[in-house]
Amino acid sequence: MEVIRVSKGETFIKKGEGLRHLYILLQGSVQSVYKRNAWRFEAGSIMGMLESSTAKYTCNYTALTDCVLYAYEYERPEDFAKIFTEDRKYVSVFMMATMRQTAHFLHTYETYYERARSYYAFLMEMFQEYELLCQEYGSVPQPFARLEMAKPFVPGERINQAVIDFYEKMAGMSQKVVEAFLGRDISLSVGEILNGAVWMRRALLLVEEIQEYLLLQREYFVCAKEDNLYHRYVELIVKTAKAGRDVSPIQEAIDKMIAYARENELYDKEWLDTAFAKYESFHFGEKAMAEHESWEEGSEDDSFSGDYLELILSFAEYEADKSEEFRADIEAYKNLTDMYSTSDDVRMMRRRLTRHYFELYKRVFRKSLDLQRLPGGIRMFLNFGFVDAELAGEDTAKELDDLVDRLFLCKADNVYTMYEWLLSVYRGENEPSRNEFDLDYPAYLQDLKKSGKLNSQQVKEQMDDPWMKVEFEMDNVFPATSKMTYGKISSYCPLLNENDVISSVESMLVTAEKINSALDHIRTIDFSVFYRGVVFSDPARDINMEMIQKEVLPNVILLPNTGNRAMMWQETAGVKRDTPARFMFPILTIGNILELMIEVTGRYRWEICRKIQGVRWNDVTEPSLTSEYSDFIQYYRKNSELSPEAKEKVKNTLVKSKNNYREVFVKDYQSWIHHESKGSFRLNKVSRNIIFKYCPFAKNIREELKVNPMYKTMFERYDIMNGRTVRRIEMLYDRYRKKGGEITRDLQRNLDFYDM
Fold first, then answer.
1. What is the DSSP letter of 373?
2. What are the residues whose beta carbons fall under 8 Å from the beta carbon of 341, sequence distance 6 or more?
3. What integer pLDDT is reported at residue 295 of this predicted model?
4. Which residues contact 135 (CB under 8 A, 6 or more apart)?
5. How far apart are CA 747 and CA 742, in angstroms?
6. What is the DSSP string of 84-103?
7. How far apart are the C-alpha atoms of 677 and 705, rounded to whole Å?
8. Which of 74, 385, 456, 639 has the fewest CB atoms found within 10 Å of its own CB?
């Protein structure tokens, strides 16, 4: 056990990290986040109980205040015996924390279960009341086609009420009662702790299932489209009020719906405030309605069923002559028998369309900065490249219209839509990316200064100008990455085209969950892939230049296009090594996301090594992944360790890779992840040794494969070198502690790294 201190805002446990410790929270508050869910833990809680029978942490744990915790070394259930043997009083401490946390998770599950169970019944009840009110006021009920898609909640699994009651009772007991009941019996306690962890995880997964149901079904109740029940009620009350009749029964029904939406947390509070603002501020008297004949115009519903292109052009305040040319080219483009033709006239048409598209995007984005909520058609344009329903296909247009209110599915701490990414650059949360000439924003401005296009004062002004940064990103990064990820460079056009949408939008959509699932899969095999060596210094305690390992996950930006390729655009966000790489994916992807992620991760492996090695990236006297691999490829014909068949295979791969050494490595890396990690040999001996040296398998995979003679020598050498490193670090840390140093989370993670 050791005492650790965590600063406010620090994420001291990251999802996907190997389970190494359990933490008792002594002081402060901690928030754990799993997908859409967040739990708050106060003093006495234990971090890691949820994962106590798994190999990895399930959630991110972030300090909400400055915190003090006890850290206990823990990797598997057998470690409880060691913790409890050292001090028996912790038997009941861990037991009670587990009971309370399990009860909390089960209560959350129960709340969501009741919410889902009652939702459909309430929806049907309010629809029947709508029909009765229409009948009462002599109005024809408006059709509600989407109601047929509403479904009652049918859970895949139901947690028995007896289980919920049991943990609620146990959580309410005092520690003394629990101690008397267990007698500090280790085996009983461990059994109850692990059982609680099972119920916690089950509750977590079921809450996620229920939330998915509610997120889909809530759109029939109220959403940013006309085809929802709330809008039907608003239509009825407006019509009735204009006729001068008493609308209080309708008002009561609408107020009931609004209260239900707010109480059940079906929607974001700010969104609800916006959606209901006009209704809640309006007075439905005869005089008021006479003065507001245009109630329907600009109502709370921001959907758009007319000319989408006109909406975009008007929003952007595009000049008449440019609008006319853009419209004419879109019409001509739609009428082409072959949109992918490479003839000169079609290529020129696509070039004009592309130029207009990016100019429009820039104008629309700039105007969006002044608005809190954007019309659905504008969000479709910004996030999917949608400009015309006929061009994209009517079915696709409807799917996108449904989807724009669920774009949170495409967002995470490390995943951005292009629109959200540009907003983050504008707000100063992220710096602009490097351009095609590998110049970052400051270097780009200095280059303009050298060429005489800017003076020193202009450089200084533009260096901190948020709009100039966004413009740099939109001019230098957005068009190039959009074209490359599309996949068919010779026929590229950024406008969403029905021919490119080969499946449903829902199935093609790249969500944050799909991205992070692919990243997690790679990390379970190539555990060190996103770790970087960074310098730790504390000269006062005789540590000057200690390199420690730090994991930095990439930022993934979802471009508003369809495509079948992904890109590793840059390996770091700046000069510092501990800044995220930037991967580019089409938001609607044709192909397997995991396959694309493995490919870009292979390129990242190569490029981050090149960046770290600098000019000596291919100098074999300075051993590195790139130098050793380049040497291997360059001299493979003379390599006595390769059979004639292996040499022929290297030759063929070189031809397919157009003599690009990086691409040869990427193909081998794909085989490394897919096949070699499962003991299926695809690589030659030389490439296998190099890749394992710099991209070693995770510990559990090494354990499974160590009996195989093909890996035996490599693994033994790795364990010896790793053991030496661990002993050196432990000795260093011991000296550091004796001199008053504190083993921070980063230092502890560095030591944990060598046991992964």
1. S
2. 491
3. 46
4. none
5. 9
6. HHH-THHHHHHHHHHHHHHH
7. 8
8. 456
Report strand pairing: 567-570 vs 582-589.
antiparallel
Per DSSP, the three-state class of 683 is: coil
Q: Give me the amino acid identity at 563.
A: G
DSSP structure class, residue 619? -
| pLDDT at res. 96 | 86
Question: If you search the block for the tokens 């996103």, which residue do you land on?
Answer: 530
Closest CA to 78 of 176, 186, 205: 186
Q: Which two tokens stand for residue 113?
A: 């279960």
* Residues sharing a CB contact under 8 Å with residue 495, sequence separation 6 or more, in sequence order: 330, 333, 353, 357, 385, 387, 388, 391
Cβ(605)–Cβ(669) under 8 Å?
Answer: yes
Token pair belonging to 638: 């003379």
φ, ψ for residue 559, nearest 5 deg:
-75, 150
Please report, for residues 187, 566, 602, 607, 660, the alpha-carbon distance to residue 665 in angstroms, rounded to integers and kept in the order given. Answer: 50, 17, 7, 11, 9
Q: Which among 149, 53, 162, 32 is positioned nearest to 101, based on CA atoms?
A: 32
Q: What's the token pair of residue 402?
A: 């449904």
Between CA 598 and CA 596 the distance in angstroms is 6
What are the beta bridge partners of residue 547?
535
Q: What 3 state SS string does 467-522 have? A: HHHHHHHHHHCHHHHHHHHHCCHHHCCCCCCHHHCCCCHHHHECCHHHHHHHHHHH
* pTM (2 d.p.): 0.72
Rounded to whole angstroms, the Cα distance separating 605 from 565 reads: 18
**pLDDT at position 30:** 93
Yes or no: say if 374 and 303 are a contact pair by the CB < 8 Å rule: no
Tell me what pLDDT residue 389 has. Answer: 93
> Which parts of the chain have pLDDT scores under 50?
287-288, 290-304
Query: Residue 746's pLDDT is what?
Result: 85
What's the per-residue H, E or C state across 322-344? HHHHHHHHHHHHHCCCCCCCCCH
Predicted confidence (pLDDT) per residue in 479-492, tens digit: 999 999 998 889 99
Sequence letter at residue 393: G
